[in-house]
Design brief:
Shape: flat
Number of helices: 10
Strand content: 15-25%
Number of strands: 21
CATH topology of the largest domain: Umud Fragment, subunit A
Radius of gyration: 28 Å
CATH architecture of the largest domain: Ribbon
Largest sheet: 8 strands, antiparallel
Structural class: alpha+beta
CATH superfamily of the largest domain: Umud Fragment, subunit A
CATH class of the largest domain: Mainly Beta
Distance between the termini: 58 Å
Length: about 475
């Protein structure tokens, strides 16, 4: 093809478009395999209760992707943008202005990479970042980790029409959805390699979020303390599952009451030297942003999270006058705590016992069960008309006394026990919201480190997650 001086839309399309009649045998084999896989997904959606029309639309959408790729139409759709970028580069003499062949090569490579990466990201493994300290010190803010989606059974897309490589917000925007919600498929998973087990570190979609399809809700990561069928109770900060004290992660944090020696941190004006205080905390891998409570108004008698190891080190520091474990008082009700029932005097350190629902199990309904499982029945199991009136319970207009659960549920908690918004605050996580199993940290970045060479936490690279 001759070198062109201007972009010709028809010539570009004619160059890109490849009739299916010209597909090679290898290409037809790939198309066939891809369409058979989409046909399998079509059958799985029907078995999960999808409307035939929606399942068919999803089948057409899936099969069309591979056909459009081999006909080069996908590359054509984005080639004007690539052509414009390359043309601008040519104006500043970074490269010669390309002809259509170069644009096709760029477009073809980009679409192939996008398709391959989307399949891997959707069905096998995906990268996540730890944004909050709820799992410290097991997982740190700035840890980058890989999460397996196939361990617990890959969840088929519930909202399949979405922008690649974005979860729920379009890139470069603050709130524009990255998905179209008119095509909603039912919940279904491929066969699992393993089930969610006690103490697994799990990524899931935050169940209490409103306004989005459940697969597009924000991703959270916590430790699964209780699985479906378990009973969980928290007594003075210790977790008991089925009456047995649960294992405590090595790097788990509790709150400690710490009284700092003011002579080291108060400046000549009688105020806390915040910069000096922040540097002091940093040497213990602590942050002023993690303060749980302030005991007195002097600013130096604080409740802060720490591991047992750090707490022992603080006790030997002359800048510390007091280090004592912190627990909320039994029978003191925290209104933020699930299930928000005024007759329950529960708090972060004293909670339960609570039964975690298991698929197929039934409960006898009473007022306590109504508060515990109301959201489970109405929202997660799609019974919006479930209600309690005058001490009686109604579903689809009929009085019921028992309810049988459809799904398995899990009770998640952060390892930073006094600085984690978890199931103690918003209840159970349905199996529909489970994303995958956290595998290992592949990169860790400490944004607070002053030395550029120390910003990478080298000791955490490729660290397994337990």
């Amino acid at each position: 093809m001759q070198h062109q001086n201007s972009f010709n839309l028809k010539a570009t399309f004619d160059f890109y478009y490849k009739s299916p009649k010209l597909f090679s045998r290898k290409q037809w084999i790939i198309v066939g395999i891809w369409c058979l896989l989409n046909l399998l997904v079509f059958g799985m959606y029907l078995s999960a209760g999808s409307a035939f029309g929606m399942a068919t639309l999803n089948l057409i959408y899936g099969c069309a992707l591979i056909v459009l790729y081999f006909t080069r139409i996908l590359a054509f759709l984005i080639s004007p943008l690539i052509y414009a970028v390359l043309y601008i580069l040519s104006l500043v003499k970074l490269m010669d202005k390309p002809d259509n062949a170069m644009v096709y090569e760029w477009g073809d490579a980009l679409w192939f990479a996008t398709l391959a990466a989307t399949v891997i990201r959707s069905y096998f493994i995906e990268a996540y970042t730890i944004p909050t300290p709820s799992m410290e010190k097991s997982l740190l803010v700035g840890d980058f980790l890989f999460v397996s989606k196939f361990h617990y059974g890959t969840r088929l897309p519930v909202t399949p029409l979405s922008f690649p490589f974005s979860h729920n917000i379009l890139p470069l925007t603050d709130s524009t959805p990255s998905y179209l919600s008119f095509m909603q498929m039912p919940y279904k998973r491929f066969p699992a390699v393993t089930t969610v087990k006690n103490n697994d570190v799990v990524v899931f979609n935050y169940p209490a979020e409103e306004g989005r399809p459940f697969d597009k809700k924000e991703n959270y990561i916590k430790r699964c303390l209780a699985i479906a069928g378990d009973s969980i109770k928290v007594v003075q900060g210790d977790v008991y599952v089925n009456g047995v004290l649960a294992d405590k992660p090595d790097q788990m944090q509790y709150g400690y009451t710490i009284k700092f020696n003011s002579s080291y941190f108060i400046d000549e004006r009688g105020s806390v030297n915040e910069e000096k205080f922040i540097k002091y905390l940093y040497q213990y891998d602590m942050s002023i942003n993690d303060i749980i409570d302030q005991v007195h108004g002097d600013g130096l008698f604080l409740v802060m999270p720490a591991t047992n190891y750090i707490a022992e080190k603080l006790k030997n520091d002359p800048k510390i006058l007091l280090v004592d474990s912190f627990r909320y008082t039994p029978q003191s009700r925290d209104p933020r705590i699930f299930p928000y029932y005024e007759k329950l005097n529960w708090n972060v350190d004293n909670f339960g016992a609570v039964y975690v629902p298991k698929a197929g199990d039934a409960i006898t309904l009473d007022s306590l069960h109504y508060y515990l499982y109301n959201r489970v029945i109405r929202v997660y199991e799609n019974n919006p008309d479930f209600k309690m009136e005058n001490g009686k319970f109604y579903l689809e207009g009929k009085e019921i006394t028992r309810y049988q659960f459809k799904y398995n549920y899990y009770f998640m908690m952060g390892d930073n026990r006094h600085n984690s918004l978890d199931s103690r605050f918003w209840g159970f996580v349905p199996e529909t919201n489970i994303v995958g199993k956290a595998l290992f940290v592949w990169m860790s970045w400490d944004k607070n480190a002053s030395n550029i060479f120390k910003k990478i936490r080298w000791n955490r690279l490729f660290m397994g997650i337990h």
